[in-house]
Design the sequence.
């Protein structure tokens, strides 16, 4: 490692922390491969997005304050999620429009916060993928990463370097899968209809593996795939990039 | 129209299970979306044009009083009459009065969303005046007693078979053979034209909406594809233009800036078949045109929006792109939104116009995917405005107590890392132990909303932070 490595604070996200820690370890592996020193502040919990999108602005502000305090000391903050990174980068500053001191701190954090794949590609200029996986994958563009952070070509460019992997074109890859955080349980019928569309797209594309950058969307889509008896499996894109594609897919025993 | 927005959840389930509607929506989701991408890609300066359109409308909203008064002055100078109406009721009564003064028994109508908003047809019918919608899509839904389901494609929820059935059932009272061929689009169209022609000749008053009002000339503008708007406004003796106050733009050039983004966003056309400018009634030298020209300017809540946090929705030019591109709209169709404006624009506008209590589902029923904002030609930040409604619903306790409680509880733990970690360790440990063998749950008592249609992946069993602490 370089003498003065870039210090990255890993915002692991609540879903990865709770449901699929291996995505967090994939993030660590990739960040270290790119030459970063990774630290994981132990006080982190959630970015506050459930409260923010639920209309509970006060709690969203309170949580944002905690996150800002926990992650202020790093060169960069990186999250394996376009949704949570988008929350910090695009929405934290606006939470403090009435508080110039906090606003400045939120702006500073926002400017240093990245979704992991775009961080590796755009900031670290890293393309040293050393992974292999045989199969036909399709990449779904999760909405926040795509529209708030411009994550689109970076994951595809890095996936192209995975030995043995074919990446199929998914025509509706920019159409929401219907997860939407609390939306998926507040309006389950609508959410399910959109997941059904996604399933049909994946089947039509002939993919056997769905890759994406947000665990929430992946849990939702993989839950639908399993329920409908599809043979398509789902993983976070960085599991494959970190050569962890041999481990159990989401919702598989192990 | 009696709002049914409160029933969004129940109606959405029915609509998702309606095979005809789903077939109709599939066409919108595939054909229109592909065409829009093509037409936008053919115009390299489309993004710059969106910026220009936004700036233009922001400037108008900043100076709305000035441009409206300028419009009134120039419209009056051209021989038109301008009527200012603060409320829907005032607008309805004004139109009724003009119709009565013209001795109208039949009025033809071009497509008008503000007409829907103020429920004009019902009002005219209640006072013995027959109002006939002349836009083809509006015509069939009027026959069926339905409201429009989309701003620019009002009958997008129907498949061809339903057109045939409706025409057979409701046109057969006239002089048409019950077994006439009516399965081809051309046959359906010809029959509609023949029926509408009778109304065009009978009508004493023609009512149109306005896509724009031009301040410098006092003109009104409609953009259409069928020519019905032109017949509506030129054949009748009296032309009434219904327009909400935010439709005004300073100049002809400004109107054309908006036309360029409007047609591409609304119908994936570079320009619509007709762009019709109306300036006052028929002049002595004109070959045709109405003898009287009235413009009914409707506020109906716009002034309140102008001064508040939802101001940006007044930039809307009613193209319907946010509806056409919205995945939720694409799954449930426009009628599910339960009032005049469906989709993302409705999610912002409807609570302002009929109250948040009735419309509370609309800003909630969005995954915040952002597709609407990404295509809105006027760059209206629709998800942010929906979120503002959610905040207001939370603050005023329109959001159900259980939902508010759930957010508060989550936030309570999220703000107490030690407690959060202890709780997470216990819950995830238990779930992991129960589910690891199979990898997922088919049902979970506390997550029935999830597991009704999806499996729930079992967690690994130890949280990332616990595993990390052990490794270090």
Sequence:
């Amino acid at each position: 490692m370089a003498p003065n490595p870039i210090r990255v604070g890993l915002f692991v996200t609540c879903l990865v922390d709770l449901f699929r820690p291996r995505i967090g370890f994939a993030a660590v592996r990739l960040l270290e491969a790119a030459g970063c020193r990774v630290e994981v502040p132990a006080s982190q919990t959630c970015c506050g997005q459930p409260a923010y999108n639920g209309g509970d602005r006060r709690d969203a502000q309170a949580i944002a304050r905690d996150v800002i305090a926990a992650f202020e000391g790093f060169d960069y903050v990186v999250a394996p999620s376009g949704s949570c990174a988008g929350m910090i980068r695009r929405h934290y500053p606006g939470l403090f429009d009435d508080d110039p001191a906090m606003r400045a701190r939120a702006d500073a954090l926002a400017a240093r916060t990245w979704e992991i794949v775009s961080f590796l590609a755009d900031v670290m200029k890293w393309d040293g993928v050393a992974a292999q996986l045989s199969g036909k994958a399709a990449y779904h563009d999760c909405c926040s990463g795509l529209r708030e952070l411009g994550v689109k070509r970076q994951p595809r460019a890095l996936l192209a370097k995975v030995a043995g992997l074919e990446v199929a074109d998914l025509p509706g890859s920019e159409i929401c899968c219907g997860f939407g955080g609390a939306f998926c349980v507040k309006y389950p019928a609508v959410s399910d209809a959109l997941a059904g569309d996604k399933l049909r797209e994946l089947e039509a594309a002939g993919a056997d593996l769905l890759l994406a950058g947000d665990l929430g969307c992946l849990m939702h889509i993989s839950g639908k795939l399993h329920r409908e008896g599809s043979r398509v499996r789902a993983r976070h894109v960085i599991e494959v990039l970190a050569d962890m594609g041999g481990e159990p897919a989401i919702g598989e025993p192990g | 129209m009696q709002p049914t927005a409160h029933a969004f959840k129940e109606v959405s389930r029915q609509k998702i299970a309606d095979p005809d509607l789903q077939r109709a929506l599939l066409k919108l989701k595939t054909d229109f979306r592909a065409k829009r991408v093509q037409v936008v890609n053919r115009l390299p300066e489309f993004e710059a044009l969106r910026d220009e359109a936004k700036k233009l409308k922001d400037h108008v909203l900043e100076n709305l009083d000035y441009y409206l008064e300028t419009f009134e002055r120039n419209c009056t100078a051209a021989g038109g009459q301008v009527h200012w109406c603060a409320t829907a009721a005032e607008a309805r009564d004004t139109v009724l009065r003009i119709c009565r003064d013209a001795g109208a028994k039949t009025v033809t109508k071009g497509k008008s969303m503000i007409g829907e908003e103020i429920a004009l047809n019902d009002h005219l019918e209640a006072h013995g005046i027959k109002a006939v919608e002349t836009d083809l899509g509006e015509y069939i839904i009027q026959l069926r007693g339905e409201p429009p389901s989309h701003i620019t494609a009002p009958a997008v929820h129907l498949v061809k078979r339903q057109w045939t059935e409706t025409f057979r059932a409701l046109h057969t009272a006239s002089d048409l053979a019950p077994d006439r061929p009516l399965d081809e689009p051309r046959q359906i169209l010809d029959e509609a034209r023949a029926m509408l022609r009778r109304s065009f000749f009978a009508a004493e008053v023609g009512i149109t909406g306005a896509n724009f009002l031009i301040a410098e000339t006092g003109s009104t503008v409609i953009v259409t594809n069928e020519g019905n708007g032109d017949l509506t406004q030129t054949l009748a003796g009296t032309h009434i233009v219904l327009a909400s106050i935010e439709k005004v733009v300073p100049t002809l050039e400004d109107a054309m800036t908006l036309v360029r983004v409007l047609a591409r966003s609304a119908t994936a056309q570079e320009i619509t078949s007709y762009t019709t400018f109306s300036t006052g009634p028929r002049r002595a030298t004109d070959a045709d045109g109405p003898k009287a020209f009235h413009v009914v300017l409707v506020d109906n809540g716009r002034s309140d929006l102008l001064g508040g946090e939802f101001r940006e929705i007044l930039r809307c030019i009613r193209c319907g792109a946010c509806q056409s591109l919205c995945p939720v709209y694409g799954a449930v169709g426009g009628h599910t939104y339960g009032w005049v404006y469906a989709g993302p624009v409705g999610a912002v506008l409807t609570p302002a116009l009929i109250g948040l209590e009735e419309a509370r589902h609309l800003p909630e029923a969005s995954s915040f995917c952002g597709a609407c904002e990404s295509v809105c030609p006027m760059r209206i930040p629709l998800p942010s405005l929906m979120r503002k409604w959610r905040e207001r619903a939370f603050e005023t306790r329109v959001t159900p107590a259980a939902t508010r409680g759930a957010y508060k509880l989550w936030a309570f733990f999220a703000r107490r890392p030690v407690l959060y970690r202890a709780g997470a360790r216990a819950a995830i440990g238990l779930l992991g132990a129960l589910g690891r063998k199979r990898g997922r749950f088919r049902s979970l008592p506390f997550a029935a909303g999830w597991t009704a249609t999806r499996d729930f992946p079992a967690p690994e069993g130890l949280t990332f932070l616990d595993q990390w602490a052990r490794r270090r």
Summary: Chain A is about 50% helix and 15% strand.
